[in-house]
């Protein structure tokens, strides 16, 4: 069952991390936090209730992959570059995966700027296996 909505400080972004088994957990981050630090924080604060037959804590944080709007979040991408609203809750999916797919499925600043450059916008989608 999802966590209750909580008051989010105006200068923080509340990420509700959603696993493939449907379990969630909320984490607070500064808008300047990059994807690699988010993964490290989740890894070091792994909730025991997440461990089950489908998902268990990985051996290292580098296996955690965050997905926002159907694209993998690159390690250097900061939350502020995603136009997330401080003081609000945003859902991100998380999977355990050794490697990322090719660059076209990765959410980076360059792909974001291409989409918002006034030209034709394309949507990206990924399949979670």
Q: Count all strands and give the number.
A: 6
Taken from the alpha-carbon principal axes, the silhouette is globular
Structural class: alpha/beta
* Helix-strand string: EEHEEEEH
Number of helical segments?
A: 2
Q: Quick one: biggest sheet?
A: 6 strands, mixed
Low-confidence stretches: 109-121
Strand content: 15-25%
Please give the order of strands in the largest beta sheet. 2-1-5-3-4-6
Mean pLDDT: 81
- Estimate the helix proportion, in percent: 10-25%
- C-alpha Rg, in Å? 15 Å
What is the terminal separation in angstroms?
Answer: 22 Å
Please outline what is shown here.
With 129 residues, this protein is of the alpha/beta class. It has helices spanning 35-44, 109-115, and strands spanning 13-19, 24-29, 64-68, 71-73, 89-96, 106-107. The model is unreliable at 109-121 (pLDDT under 50).
Give a verbal description of the structure.
This protein has 129 residues and is α/β, with parallel strands linked by helices. The chain has helices spanning 35-44, 109-115, and strands spanning 13-19, 24-29, 64-68, 71-73, 89-96, 106-107. Helices cover 13% and strands 24% of the residues. Strands 2-1-5-3-4-6 form a six-stranded mixed β-sheet. A hairpin with a 4-residue loop joins strand 1 (13-19) and strand 2. The longest helix has 10 residues, at 35-44. The chain is globular. It starts with 12 loop residues before the first strand and ends in a 14-residue tail after the last helix. The relative contact order is 0.21.
Provide the fold topology.
Elements: E1 13-19, E2 24-29, H1 35-44, E3 64-68, E4 71-73, E5 89-96, E6 106-107, H2 109-115
Parallel strand pairs: 1-5, 4-6
Antiparallel strand pairs: 1-2, 3-4, 3-5
